[in-house]
Fold:
Amino acid sequence: MVIIFITVLLTVILMQNTESVKFTFLFSTFYLSKLAAMAGVSGIAFILGVLVGRPKKVRSISGSFPDDDHREEKTGTLSDEDRDYIN
Structure:
């Protein structure tokens, strides 16, 4: 619903601004309608919003791990050094 409202609002604004305006870019001057300029800026803003708003790719580390890293250690057991330190 919000997207439809924004699209209608943008269309009305674009249609009300159809007269030509003078643009100067670096050393050149050209005339362009406000409609084309605002549509171009809106399109670029949409593309940038999509690019910035997309989720980032998750990188995974490939390779094999030694079997020792996957062994499960018993939780709740203390080494002799830990017991001596606690006492």
Summary: The CA atoms of residues 14 and 39 lie 7 Å apart. The first helix runs from residue 2 to 16. Residues 1-53 form one domain. The chain has a mean pLDDT of 80.
